[in-house]
Amino acid sequence: MTFRPSVVFAKFAAPAKGVVFVFLGEDGKPGDKAALADPAGVLARAVPAAGFTGKFGSVVEILAPEGGAFDRLVGVGVGKPATLDEHAWLKLGGIVAGALRDAAEATVVLDVPGLPVGPRQAADLAAGVLLRSYRFDKYKKTRKDEAVDGERPKKPAKVAIQCAEPARARKAFAEAEAVADGVFLARDLVNEPANVLGPLEFADRARELASLGVNVEILTEKDMKKLGMGCLLGVAQGSPRGARLAVMRWNGGRPKDRPLAFVGKGVTFDTGGNSMKTASGMEDMKGDMGGAAAVAGLMHALAARKARANVVGVIGLVENAVDGHAQRPGDIVTSMSGQTVEVMNTDAEGRLVLADALWYCNDRFQPKFMINLATLTGAIMVALGVHHAGLFSNDDELAARLLEAGRATQERLWRMPLGPEYDKLIDSRNADMKNVGGRHGGAITAAQFLKRFVKGDTPWAHLDIAGTAIAAPSNEINQSWASGFGVRLLDRLVRDHYEG
Questions:
Q1: Reduced to 3 states, what is the DSSP secondary structure of residue 157?
Q2: Is 258 noted as a catalytic residue in this protein?
Q3: Of 124, 231, 338, 392, which is most buried with the most CB atoms under 10 A?
Q4: pLDDT tens for each residue of 139-149
Q5: Among residues 4, 207, 241, 277, which one is catalytic?
């Protein structure tokens, strides 16, 4: 991620140059402080002439406004001020970032008619500016002047947010920025091409979290073979690039507190193996490690903001490739749990990776709960589209807290069923289970498979993020192919319920 605007907070004052943003209510009128940016009252004339209604997210723009030395004056509609929640402020920040274009400097006058705006709202607005400004352009060497994602490329802008309490806003923004950086890490990892980011390179990126105080341990193929991880290693055996299991620990809570555990599928490229995918769209399979990327991004966010919790992140890193050594349909492998799996479809590989990663995490750390994330099935996209991730859980309280965090961050989840009727679909004649359950309910039978590798009464949730982590629709705070889905969601879960 090479593009990043600098954000500062300042007291209200008359802007001197660049682009100036003010906020307008649903009647099209600005707040009192906007007079500093519009001494000639040009907005009062421009708003009715443009048919501007103040609807949330609408924009009215004035070039070289009378009475000011700056280049543009931009009015942004906020709609009904009472409806402005946390995510709305993020979106407003994204709208500001989208309207910067090639501006070198910008001033945001954070004054909303009829609404007191505090440090938290200022920090959320600034975070929205950062999230929208993300660009993955490190490989654009000779054509950097072309538009990226429909917006003209530019040098990072200096954005000054004028607000009532700049010192407190700056402090609140430090935590919001830590989370945004976690999102950026997840996006960067997913956006990287598979020839650059394989299992070993991903493990090296995980090691870099040590600079934030994260304890990082990398298990090699030799280590995993000793542990009996036949499911994970079976997926990796067709690739010359090896396999790794990265274990990341952040100890910010009390020493005796059991950790919160997050487990991610990290298939750095998925050909489908011998059950090979069609060529159409296979290039997107560089993003089949979106779950592992989200876990790495979450660990960055928690460590950077010094979360008061003990957290462990475990990610299984493999490439599902095809050669003479690759796993075959009909092979039977033995998992770390001792359970055997008949591999009916080598393209249902993510659940095999997660099976051993979940058991290892559960067995070693005995966590308070486990949540795994994976771009696991196309079936979840058939069921839910690309605006909700699928949530499967054996624990109602954990599921409710995840749904609540999804609503707050707008990284939305929808709970899906589990049950013995679905579970029996993965029973096998030749082994303890098979890795697919037939044509119908594919996302559910995948979840039932994972559930067999969760010990006893450990609270567990599985998030199928196939539709939301990659190629999801762009929005006010993300214009990237990789969304970083899951980082803000899980940070919010930890913040709201598990920090002491």
A1: coil
A2: no
A3: 231
A4: 988 765 555 55
A5: 277
| Contact by Cβ (8 Å): 451, 425 | no
The two three-digit tokens of residue 443, written as one number: 């996302």
The residues with which 22 forms a beta bridge, in sequence order, are 75, 109
- Per DSSP, the residues of 320-354 read E--STTS--TTEEEE-TTS-EEEES-TT--HHHHH
CA–CA dist 476, 483 (Å, integer) = 12
**Residue 448 contacts by C-beta under 8 Å, 6 or more apart in sequence?**
418, 422, 423, 425, 426, 437
Q: Which run of H or of E encompasses 300?
A: helix 290-304
Q: What is the pLDDT of residues 320-339, one digit of tens each?
A: 999 999 999 999 999 999 99
Q: Which tokens is 94 given? A: 């994204």
The pair of three-digit structure tokens given for residue 460, joined into one six-digit string = 């567990």
- Residue 182: closest CA among 89, 296, 312: 296
- The confidence score (pLDDT) of residue 309 equals 98
DSSP 9: E
What does the pLDDT look like over 198-219, one tens digit per residue?
A: 999 999 999 999 999 999 999 9
pLDDT grade, residue 156 (50/70/90)? confident
Cα-based distances in Å from 287 to 247, 270, 271, 280, 313? 20, 9, 12, 15, 19
Locus of tokens 């450990």: 458
Reported as type and span, the H/E element at residue 105 is strand 105-109
* Whether this model's pTM surpasses 0.85: yes
Q: Facing residues of 74 across strands?
A: 21, 61
- On the CB side of 180, how many CA atoms lie within 13 Å of its CA? 27
CA 283 to chain CA mean position, Å: 20
Out of 351, 452, 488, 492, the active site residue is 351
CA distance 189 to 290: 8
Integer-rounded Cα Rg, in Å, for the chain is 24
Check whether 1 has a pLDDT greater than 50: no
In the block, residue with structure tokens 């298990």: 219
Residue 462 tokens read as: 């599985």
Q: What is the pLDDT of residues 447-464, one digit of tens each?
A: 999 999 999 899 999 999
